[in-house]
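Methods — Computational structure assignment.
A single polypeptide chain was analysed. Its primary sequence is given first, followed by the predicted tertiary structure written as structure tokens.
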Amino acid sequence: MNGTAQLGNRVSTVLGRKLGGELLRLRDASAKTQHQAAEVINATNSKIVKMERGWVPMRDPDIRVLCELYGLEDRDTLARLLELAKLDRERRKAKGWWQHSPNAGGLAEYVAMEDAATHIRNWQSSLVPGLFQTSEYTRSLSVSEGDWEDPDDIERWVEVKQRRQERLLGERPVTVYAMVWEAALRQQVGGTTVMHAQLEHLLDLTALPNVRLQVVPFRAGGHPCIAGPFSILSFAETGALDVVQVDSLTGPMWVEDETKGTMYSERFNRTARLALAPRDSITLIDGLRKEI
């Protein structure tokens, strides 16, 4: 599913659908009807449908009343739902820098989510993670894709991807746990000079307290994440109301179902047990850098 969908003047967002799905799950568990939910917040049945499908932003008072109706007693869960609603409202205001970048394209929704996230777990099988790429590496990838008609568009695309990396620094840096297959580090994107600089950049990033990087070596063989790259974004403590973005040739797809999201998290954790420890991963990266 794409990050956003439109219906009339309403917009369905990833965060909105996630929040709506959580409320729907609570309503089903309590055996309450849409009509009962509508009555308690003085709304129509169609309003409940729109809320549960993520088409409209939600007010904190409505969430509190609905959760009380559904018998939710866990204050931590309620706090997470309220925080998710707040993030969704802020997201809908579209004040982020990416909204003013015409070259953000399909990446815009992901960048918006990335900007709101507190933790990101990322698996890459063939490329260096986007948050860790040097401008030369990103530029080389763009040129090799051959989809650009105007060379200036490539530079604007590089600028967008580089600006994302501001999330690694500053007052509220995002915590990133990345795993990379060894093949991604050996693939010489852009040639030896570009790749040498890219590996040096990775070594520099591992010094950041909010960055954890592990390499899955060839000798690990088949592993749970071998099917393809994905990112797990968390908006509170890891595991709380996560959403998953899966990379594909046609663009990013979002996994918002709790059961499927848990599957990705479990696969990430099982693969991590096959990866080199962070210190050994640094040793491998440094060795590859010296080989070039």
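Note: Residues 5-9 have pLDDT under 50 and may be disordered.
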